[in-house]
Design brief:
The structure is a single chain. The chain is mainly alpha-helical. It has one domain. Helix content is about 55%, strand content about 10%. It has a three-stranded mixed beta sheet with strand order 1-4-5. Strand 6 and strand 7 form a beta hairpin. The N and C termini lie far apart (about 85 Å). The N terminus is likely disordered.
């Protein structure tokens, strides 16, 4: 009961005095119906009680799939429960970047969890700067959907976070288009990681034409 009460208190804006994300209690970035499913779930009650930013990592490295809700009862995945727990903790960005990069290099679902949190909480330009390098991560991921598991890849999931309106059963706040942020000088134009190879191919083609003529 105390854990349920603690969760309820964190969602009560009248008593909330912690950090705000875009002017609101971070825990409310996930829809109320989903929050209720999370705080009523067995995983939340048994595995999320008393976690802090450090001990949550111990839970995150145990993940073997990601997703939102599943089954007829729309049960929340452990992934979504841990994402919600992060929203109630609001750890420093440096900690999330440690999840994303150092821990994420070894544990791919830790990286996916951190990427999801980044999309929910970071500023628009920081979202692009932080997530776009992960488009080079092609590791396989298992996603739990309503009735089955499906195969996807880290880069596909990151692209989903950057371009879609929903991910993991959660509405994503509207992200400014990259071109808009470039026009505002908040982002440098993105250069494809393959650009160097393309430039080399163009140079080789030009050399071939010069030899012919």
């Amino acid at each position: 009961m105390s854990h349920r009460a603690d969760a309820s208190n964190s969602l009560d804006d009248r008593g909330y005095s912690g950090p705000l994300i875009r002017g609101q209690n971070p825990a409310t970035l996930i829809e109320e119906a989903t929050r209720n499913r999370i705080t009523n779930s067995l995983y939340w009650k048994e595995s999320c009680f008393g976690l802090n930013a450090a001990t949550l990592l111990d839970r995150a490295v145990e993940l073997t799939y990601f997703g939102g809700t599943y089954g007829v009862a729309m049960k929340p995945t452990p992934f979504l429960c841990l994402a919600f727990k992060l929203l109630t903790l609001v750890p420093d960005q440096e900690i999330i970047l440690e999840y994303l990069n150092n821990a994420g290099d070894e544990f791919k679902y830790v990286r996916a969890l951190a990427a999801f949190y980044v999309r929910l909480t970071f500023d628009p330009d920081e979202i692009y700067k932080t997530l776009e390098p992960l488009l080079l991560d092609s590791r396989k991921l298992r996603r739990r959907r309503k009735e089955e598991y499906t195969l996807t890849y880290m880069d596909e999931f990151v692209d989903e976070l950057l371009t879609k309106e929903r991910a993991c059963g959660t509405s994503l706040w509207k992200l400014s288009a990259r071109s808009v942020l470039e026009d505002l000088d908040r982002l440098e134009p993105r250069e494809s990681p393959l650009q160097a190879e393309l430039d080399a191919m163009d140079d080789a083609d030009q050399e071939m034409q010069d030899v012919r003529f």
